[in-house]
Amino acid sequence: MNNPEGITSEGKVAVIGLGISGLASLKNLLEQGFDAVGIERNDYIGGIWHFTEDKQKTSVLETTIANSSKQFGCFTDFPFGDN
């Protein structure tokens, strides 16, 4: 990934929320040399992909394994396995 002209990796960056998008953002920022930190209000990461019985929070069902295509729902550097 190339940084656009004028964008530097100086300073600190906070990623608020460590669901799937926050985790991907944090990973890419760190790979680009930013001093980045992830902040999550829950005691777990994963956002709605983390099962919880707490009725005040949105989550997957306890029996959910995956609800998207493994060909289109993975990251290029962390693909799903064959099974």
TrEMBL record:
<dbReference type="GO" id="GO:0050661">
    <property type="term" value="F:NADP binding"/>
</dbReference>
<keyword id="KW-0285">Flavoprotein</keyword>
<dbReference type="InterPro" id="IPR020946">
    <property type="entry name" value="Flavin_mOase-like"/>
</dbReference>
<dbReference type="InterPro" id="IPR036188">
    <property type="entry name" value="FAD/NAD-bd_sf"/>
</dbReference>
<dbReference type="Pfam" id="PF00743">
    <property type="entry name" value="FMO-like"/>
</dbReference>
<protein>
    <recommendedName>
        <fullName>Flavin-containing monooxygenase</fullName>
    </recommendedName>
</protein>
<keyword id="KW-0274">FAD</keyword>
<dbReference type="GO" id="GO:0004499">
    <property type="term" value="F:N,N-dimethylaniline monooxygenase activity"/>
</dbReference>
<dbReference type="GO" id="GO:0050660">
    <property type="term" value="F:flavin adenine dinucleotide binding"/>
</dbReference>
<keyword id="KW-0560">Oxidoreductase</keyword>
<comment type="similarity">
    <text>Belongs to the FMO family.</text>
</comment>
<dbReference type="InterPro" id="IPR050346">
    <property type="entry name" value="FMO-like"/>
</dbReference>
